[in-house]
Amino acid sequence: MASRSRRLLITDLDNTLYDWVTFFARAFDAMVDAMVDLLAVDRGTLLDEFRAVHQRLGDSEHPYAALELPSVRARYPDANQSELALALDEPLHRFNSVRKETLALYPGVEMTLTRLRQAGITIVGHTEAIAPNAYYRLTRLNIAQRFKHLYVLQGQPVNHPRPDRLPLLEPPRGLIRSIPRSERKPNPKLLLDICEREGVPASAAVYVGDSLVRDMSMALDAGVTAVWAKYGTVYDPALWSTLVRVTHWTAEDVEREKALSGRRVEPDLAISSFSELLPLFIDTRAADEVGPPRSQLN
User: Fold this and answer.
1) Is the pLDDT at 257 greater than 70, yes or no?
2) Residue 144's CB: how many other CB atoms inside 10 A?
3) What is the pLDDT of residues 174-224, one digit of tens each?
4) Rounded Cα distance, 192 and 212, in Å
5) Counts for the chain of helices (H) and strands (E), in that order
6) Which of 190, 222, 224, 233 gives 20 to 30 Å between its CA and that of 151?
7) Are 128 and 184 within 8 A, CB to CB?
8) What is the Cα 56 distance to its own chain's centre?
9) Nearest in space to 81 (alpha carbons), one of 64, 103, 93, 99
């Protein structure tokens, strides 16, 4: 039985549905290690160059940013994008290989999304990753079909050396919804905008995310039930240091984050597993007694 009071789940993706920090940092490290061997350039130089490119792109998750590094351009001065991708085939292959090995859903995510969909709960995702990257992960993890919409930042660039492959990463029509860049986390208007588009009042929505500073403060300010995925904060600190080293954040971004971190945030609920969301929407005791709904997912 679905709860009458809560009808919409808005979920963060990275470190809420899967451990983004671990899979991306390990894949990135593997790629850089291979580039050090290939280019005979020290690791620190490559990391500095990655950070500069990431800041220009406004995003840290562009593996093909490797093609734009000064060290790569210096090694292959006359190569075009496709030729550079071929020259860096081994580093890029290492990234993809480690990503496939380490990208996995947190326990309980697939089951929870399935039961919520069967109970008639609207599920939407929100991410500040570019749409092809986010859609790739949801598809590879076999949960893309659980989402009614995926909200992404407006006007995000797609950097790919082979435009002919972009259609393979293209989300199905109607899945992607754009959010103005002015509504980046922790702006509460982001969640209010999503609720309005989904036709659900904020009081009937639940937002789940891993960041107390950016996710929970935003949800609380929007009047949305704020659920902290505290399990998403558990990872090797060394991997986080890798990401910080090449972050696209500017000095202004860092200062803003420091200012926000001084705020005391108390979420409505802290969970140790994604499945702990179920009682917010479903009478799980009744569901366990009668068995799962027979309705089929679209």
Assistant:
1) no
2) 18
3) 999 999 988 889 999 999 999 999 999 999 999 999 999 899 999 999 999
4) 18
5) 14, 7
6) 233
7) yes
8) 20
9) 64
